[in-house]
Amino acid sequence: MIDGRHGTRDPADSRTPLPRSFFDRPVLHVAPELLGRVLVRSTPAGPVEVRLTEVEAYAGEVDPGSHAYRGKTQRNASMFGPPGHAYVYFIYGMWWNLNLVCGPRGHASGVLIRAGEIVTGTELARQRRPKARKDTELAMGPARLATALGVNRALDGADACGPEGTGELCVLEGHPAPADSVRSGPRTGVGGEGATHPWRYWLDGDPTVSPYRAHRPRNRRHRLDASGGDA
């Protein structure tokens, strides 16, 4: 598939896994530079690969919007671990979300993987997301993406920096997005002091990017919005 703004989307052109040093940097540097990369999720059923088009940065204990803002707990322990590992959590008792840990061990920064284009394993993603009306919706929103990839609690703490094919998760070089195609704005659904931080990054005009929704009180409608739709 070709896109005039972003170039060829074939991930086979660059299969080099990103090194740990890529993630061992400030989260506000890592997050926008993940756009255009290819996230590979391997399961016994087969691989699913997604070209990343939307992410959000969370800056640990200095960020009121972060799970780590009030310190380390059993639930968020993976955020305090080494860079390049997964932090997976269950939200609203319904959906999984996937994050990649950034910065030095103990800083608890991470990037929420919000949306992308499935480039390999589309049929498997469709089986996991039968309610998707079209392929651009398969991974549109963090819960939809996690469902399409087969993310679950067992992936929490998984290393995403190993050689491709040796683990359950890997991030490939892919085709880094040109800086002029990247947009930023407030994070979806974040309220309070962190509401205005422009730490959501997305590819301008990409059809897989999820709609922005401001923070609203938690009710059933809000829970559906936060998932990126009914996963």
Radius of gyration: 16 Å
**Helix content, binned percent:** 10-25%
Number of helices: 5
The major beta sheet can be summarized as:
8 strands, antiparallel
Question: If you consult CATH, what is the topology?
Answer: 3-methyladenine DNA Glycosylase, Chain A
Strand content: 25-35%
Quick check: average pLDDT? Answer: 88
Q: Which residue ranges are poorly predicted, with pLDDT under 50 across at least 5 consecutive positions?
A: 1-9, 220-231
Q: What is the top-level CATH class?
A: Alpha Beta
**What would you call the shape?**
globular
What's the architecture in CATH terms?
A: Roll
Secondary-structure element series: EEHHEEEEEHHEEEH
Characteristics of this structure?
single chain; 231 residues; alpha+beta; 3-methyladenine DNA Glycosylase, Chain A; eight-stranded antiparallel β-sheet; two-stranded antiparallel sheet; 5 helices; 26% strand; disordered C terminus
In short:
With 231 residues, the chain is α+β, with helices and mostly antiparallel strands. It is built from five helices and ten strands; from the N terminus they run ββααβββββααβββα. The strands form two sheets. Strands 3, 4, 5, 6, 7, 8, 9 and 10 form an eight-stranded antiparallel β-sheet that branches.
